[in-house]
């Protein structure tokens, strides 16, 4: 093993042995009694009132400057950084100077985790610091951190390589504090959503991740095997059909933050494992859902930014409700010049050919419409826009439009050229739903790996009667990208999926 270690790693392991010889535990078991954090000290200390005199704080050493009988260090905790002032006389008031001379001056490294007790004061250079009276090593770091150097306002040796950052997110979070802010905002966003739904009478629920039929969306699933039952199971692609079962069972407003899995491509907006919020409301339709959704998204922007204007790259996205509403056929007409509203499959194939859009034999009418919109229209909708009234072939779980034959009551929310949410007036006619599933089965026979399975238990549930219902799925990761000014989904996932790391 030692042959694979760097010089720095070997030195740190030697220091570990030195600690053992000194009788000092490198990874002590007792809890260190932290009573404050760096932010509290920096914001609350009053040099006149001399408050916050006795503080206990712990964190990771981020800089270390020994100067004879005095050592300056900076430690970083969850809230930020603060300076330590460590002198041999304060830490070792008696004759035994081992802790300072051997541990702090020669064994302590950047990256080590320490706990200190002391009093707050302001140095001659005006920096709020802790005069350390008690020092304890809490964890010895055996690998050196990437040292991010700053000089004259410039940063050197920054830990910026995306592959390294995503593989070693733990290091990324330590040395790139701005990354932490992205995830803090993501958490605040989810809390805002949860509070908003709860305040409107919704109930949070849990539904199965392992499903014997992957339903609720058009997507290719991951397949696994249950040994005890000796049957195949699928990681869920959506939780829709289970939430609708709960509507059948008598709950009028249910929601779930669902971890979903789709065995498809990966890019800057797709990860095979992702989070979706789905909620379903009885006795409502897609018009109500548009009103509710735009107000909720507006509230999220205000909660995170204090305004409905959110900066995204070189754009400003305005989340002030109401949002624009455009039918999918009108969007295609505007951006391609083709009115496809009355076209059959052959005519749509011809349009795709003229627009240089690739097709294959598995694509039915609905998939062709979707390909045209995705290739030629989607990227044009930068400001929040509801794309509404989809063809029935593209929406097997959606209620037929009450006044427009051949269409369904569905919308997708587009922001910055990407779909953020997908919603319907839900199909609650069990006979119509069975016919739609059978059409999906025919697409499967043609080789469409994303076509839906027939879920006989869900059909049975509908036969007991589901009230008129509206439902929605919102991509939490994509919404987080918008709200935190990130161009890649990997930046809003703590641990995005990656190809296995090559081993030496």
What is the radius of gyration computed over CA atoms, rounded to a whole number of angstroms? 29 Å
Helical coverage, percent range: 25-40%
**N-to-C CA distance:** 11 Å
User: How large is the share of residues in beta strands?
Assistant: 25-35%
Largest sheet: number of strands, sense, barrel closure: 8 strands, mixed
- Gross morphology: elongated
- At the fourth CATH level, what is the homologous superfamily of the largest domain? Bira Bifunctional Protein, Domain 2
**What's the number of helices?**
15
Tally the beta strands: 20
**Strand sequence of the main sheet, in spatial order?**
8-12-13-20-19-18-17-16
Number of domains: 2
Task: Label the CATH architecture of the largest domain.
Answer: 2-Layer Sandwich
Q: Structural class of the secondary structure composition?
A: alpha+beta
CATH names the topology of the largest domain as BirA Bifunctional Protein, domain 2
Which CATH class of the largest domain?
A: Alpha Beta
Averaged pLDDT: 93
- Pick out the low-confidence regions: none
Task: Please explain how this structure is put together.
It is a single chain. This protein has 504 residues and is of the alpha+beta class. It has 2 domains: 2-145, Nucleic acid-binding proteins (OB fold (Dihydrolipoamide Acetyltransferase, E2P), Beta Barrel), CATH 2.40.50.140; 178-323 and 383-492, Bira Bifunctional Protein, Domain 2 (BirA Bifunctional Protein, domain 2), CATH 3.30.930. The protein has 15 helices and 20 strands. The chain has helices spanning 7-22, 38-44, 88-91, 98-107, 162-167, 169-175, 177-199, 240-248, 286-305, 328-336, 345-354, 365-376, 430-445, 456-463, 476-484; strands at residues 55-67, 70-77, 80-87, 113-122, 128-139, 149-151, 154-156, 203-204, 210-211, 223-226, 231-235, 253-261, 273-282, 309-312, 315-318, 324-327, 385-391, 407-415, 418-425, 469-475. The protein has an 8-stranded mixed beta sheet, with helices on both faces. It has a 5-stranded mixed beta barrel with strand order 1-2-3-5-4. It has a 3-stranded antiparallel beta sheet with strand order 9-11-10, with no helix packed on it. A hairpin with a 2-residue loop joins strand 14 (309-312) and strand 15 (315-318). Helix 6 crosses helix 7, helix 11 runs parallel beside helix 12 and helix 13 packs antiparallel against helix 14 (456-463). The radius of gyration is 29 Å and the shape is elongated.
